[in-house]
Amino acid sequence: MLMAPGFAMAIIIEAKKAESRERLEYWCDEALRQISSREYAEKFDGYRQVLRYGIAFYQKTALVKSGNKYEVFSKAVD
Predict the structure, then answer these.
(1) β-pairing, 9-17 with 61-66?
(2) DSSP 35-46
(3) Would you give the end-to-end CA distance of the chain in angstroms?
């Protein structure tokens, strides 16, 4: 978790290792579910913005998904 109280922003990143390239999206979604179910963002009460990202890796490939309300993207990087 990255926190910058002076800027009122926190970033939560949860990373998972996928067992295949085809499972990258599943593990990104699982990372975002973990952020939600364990209520990580609630620890940052008083922050103006809390960004949430799920990242899944398989070998040298990564997929990043945003769990932010106004930012929706999914990008694979080789």
Answers:
(1) unpaired
(2) HHHTTGGGGGTT
(3) 24
pLDDT digits (tens, 9 = 90+) for 12-43: 999 999 999 999 999 999 999 999 999 998 88
Q: Which two tokens stand for residue 68?
A: 């932010």
Q: Which amino acid does the sequence have at 33? A: R
Structure tokens at 3: 């926190």
Cα separation, 32 vs 37, whole angstroms:
9
Describe the strand order of the beta sheet including 9-17 as a list of residue ranges.
Answer: 2-4, 9-17, 49-58, 61-66, 74-77
